C-alpha cells in the first residue's frame, strides 16, 4: 500500500469533538440558533472548500457572498448554497473572525482511534505522528495540523480534554488540512505514548532545556514528535515517557519558539532525513 493511500484511509476514519466544549470559532451570537449536536460551522475559503470536497462529511448549508459563489461556482453545491452578504456570515461567528465570504454547516468528522491511525502506517517504510501535550490555542493547533499534512505526517494526536474543538478558528488555520489528516483524541497521553511505542514509533520530545540539539539526535523512520504547550512546555510525565528529549538550537536571547513553528521544524527534519 502506498503512503498516500494509507494516510487517506486513516484520514477517512475522521475525528469527532467533545460536544460540551465551548466553540472557539463559531458560537451563538446575535440571536442566531445553534447548529445541531452533530453539525459544525467551518469558515474560510480553503477550509470550507475542503469540507465540501470531503465525502465523509454531509454539507447541509453553504453561505457565500456573490463574489465567492461566482469565483468557486464549480466547487460549490448549487442546491445548498445561499447567496448572502458578509454581515450575515459574520453574525454566525465570534467577533473578529475572518470568514473570507464563505461558511459551511456540515456534519462532524467521525471518530478515529489511535490504534486505527497506527494500523494505517503498518506497511509504510516510514511514518511520523505529532503529539501535542495540552496545546489549547486553536490557531496554533490548526497551523500544526497544516504543517503535519504538508510534510506527510500520518496523524496529529491531542488530549481530549485539553485541546480546542475541530472547527472554527482551528479549521481555518488548518487551511483544509483537517480534511486530509486524522486528528486523534486520547484520554491519557502517557498511555498513548506507550501505545505508539508498541506500534513501533520512537518518541522524540522537544524541550528547550534538553542537552542534545535536534541535529545531534537520531531520527528513526517511525517517530512520534512530542510537543508541549507554549510557555509551560511538556508536562513532567510526558517528558519522562519520551525515548529522547531534544532542543531546537536558537538564539539564547529568545526564550522559545511558537508551537506551530517548532512543529514545522521537527516535521521538516523528519522528512529531510528519512523521507527524501
- Identify low-pLDDT runs: 1-35
Radius of gyration: 19 Å
Rough outline: elongated
**Main pleated sheet:** 6 strands, parallel
Key terms for this structure?
alpha/beta, Alpha/beta knot, four-stranded mixed β-sheet, 10 strands, 60s Ribosomal Protein L30, Chain: A
Describe the secondary structure blueprint for this structure.
Layout: H1 3-13, E1 39-43, H2 45-53, E2 59-64, H3 66-71, E3 81-83, H4 86-90, E4 102-107, H5 114-119, E5 127-133, H6 138-150, E6 155-159, H7 168-174, E7 183-186, H8 189-198, E8 202-206, E9 222-228, H9 236-240, E10 244-246, H10 259-275
Helix pairs in contact: 2-7, 6-7, 6-10
Short description:
With 276 residues, the chain is an alpha/beta fold.
Walkthrough of the structure:
The protein is an alpha/beta fold. The protein folds into 2 domains: 21-107, 2-Layer Sandwich (60s Ribosomal Protein L30, Chain: A); 114-275, Alpha/beta knot (3-Layer(aba) Sandwich). It contains 10 helices and 10 strands. Helix 2 (45-53) crosses helix 7 and helix 6 (138-150) packs parallel to helix 7. It is elongated. The relative contact order is 0.17.
Amino acid at each position: 500500500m502506498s503512503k498516500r493511500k494509507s494516510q487517506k484511509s486513516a484520514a477517512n476514519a475522521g475525528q469527532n469533538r467533545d460536544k460540551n466544549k465551548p466553540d472557539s470559532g463559531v458560537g451563538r451570537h446575535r440571536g442566531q440558533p445553534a447548529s445541531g449536536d452533530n453539525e459544525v460551522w467551518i469558515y474560510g475559503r480553503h477550509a470550507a472548500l475542503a469540507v465540501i470536497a470531503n465525502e465523509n462529511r454531509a454539507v447541509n448549508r453553504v453561505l457565500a457572498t456573490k463574489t465567492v459563489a461566482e469565483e468557486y461556482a464549480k466547487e460549490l453545491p448549487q442546491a445548498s448554497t445561499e447567496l448572502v452578504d458578509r454581515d450575515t456570515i459574520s453574525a454566525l461567528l465570534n467577533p473578529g473572525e475572518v470568514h473570507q465570504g464563505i461558511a459551511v454547516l456540515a456534519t462532524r468528522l467521525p471518530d478515529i482511534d489511535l490504534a486505527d491511525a497506527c494500523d494505517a502506517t503498518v506497511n509504510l517504510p516510514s511514518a511520523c505522528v505529532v503529539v501535542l501535550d495540552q496545546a489549547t490555542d486553536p490557531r496554533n493547533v490548526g497551523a500544526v495540523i497544516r504543517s503535519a499534512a504538508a510534510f506527510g505526517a500520518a496523524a496529529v494526536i491531542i488530549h481530549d480534554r485539553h485541546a480546542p474543538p475541530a472547527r472554527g478558528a482551528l479549521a481555518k488555520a488548518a487551511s483544509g488540512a483537517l480534511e486530509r489528516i486524522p486528528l486523534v483524541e486520547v484520554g491519557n497521553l502517557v498511555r498513548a505514548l506507550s501505545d505508539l511505542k508498541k506500534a513501533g514509533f520512537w518518541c522524540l520530545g522537544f524541550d528547550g532545556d534538553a542537552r542534545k540539539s535536534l541535529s545531534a539526535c537520531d531520527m528513526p523512520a517511525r517517530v512520534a514528535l512530542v510537543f508541549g504547550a507554549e510557555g509551560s512546555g511538556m508536562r513532567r510525565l510526558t517528558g519522562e515517557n519520551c525515548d529522547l528529549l531534544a532542543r531546537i538550537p536558537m538564539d539564547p536571547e529568545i526564550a522559545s519558539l511558537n508551537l506551530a513553528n517548532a512543529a514545522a521544524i521537527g516535521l521538516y527534519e523528519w522528512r529531510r532525513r528519512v523521507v527524501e
